[in-house]
Amino acid sequence: SKPTPNSTLREVKLGWIAGWAEESKIFLILFGEEPPRKVEKEDRSDDEPFIPTGNRSRSAVRSVRHRPDQATFRLRVLQRYGPRCPLSGVAVLEMLEAVHFIPDYAGGSPDPRNGIPMNAALHRAFDAGLFAIHPDTLKVEVVPGGPTLEDLGIRFPSISNLPRKPHRDALEWRYEWWKRKNYG
């Protein structure tokens, strides 16, 4: 029988550990009858071809975006780069988000090389086009006359110090989008 709000019965669902990020101390648990096809134990994205587009997000009838790969994407980004925003230095896991260079709405893939961990405030600024990362120099660029690096809270204006870099194609897509948005 189905539990009621005042019942001592609880509905139990089968959950599977689908991956983890050791350094971040997080697990990905998927619910369902079948085990996950793949368990994400560590980042191996450099061993795979980079496919920049092809996410599985879609709009539901209620105009709600369904993003089935988002939790896995976050896990894989944290596995690849660790639990720290490389631009601000923020290392509070609850404040970190996995940012897409090629976003979901443009068909961006859940490959971790299509992303980077970023604190939530910088994620909003990034998506608003307030700054970009140059695909060749890996330096942060801001719009002349717009918010400065200091205004945005960017303490480390380059991602060149990352041991593993995002894919150049993903960086270039976002940089070109940023230039069109800000310079016409």
Please supply descriptive tags for the structure shown above.
single chain, 184 residues, alpha+beta, two-stranded antiparallel sheet, two-stranded antiparallel ribbon, 4 helices
Characterise this structure.
With about 180 residues, the chain is of the alpha+beta class. It has four helices and eight strands. The strands form four sheets. It has a two-stranded antiparallel ribbon. A two-stranded antiparallel ribbon has the order 3-4. Strand 3 (about 60) and strand 4 (about 65) form a beta hairpin. The mean pLDDT is about 90.
State the total count of DSSP E strands: 8
Radius of gyration: 19 Å
Uncertain segments are: none
Distance between the termini: 60 Å
| SSE ordering | EEEEHEEHEEHH
Shape: elongated
- Whole-number mean pLDDT: 89
Write the layout of secondary structure elements.
Elements: E1 15-21, E2 26-31, E3 58-59, E4 65-66, H1 70-81, E5 96-100, E6 115-119, H2 120-127, E7 131-133, E8 140-142, H3 149-152, H4 168-183
Antiparallel strand pairs: 1-2, 3-4, 5-6, 7-8
Q: Briefly, what is this?
A:
This protein has four helices and eight strands. With about 180 residues, it is α+β, with helices and mostly antiparallel strands. The protein is elongated, with a radius of gyration of 19 Å.
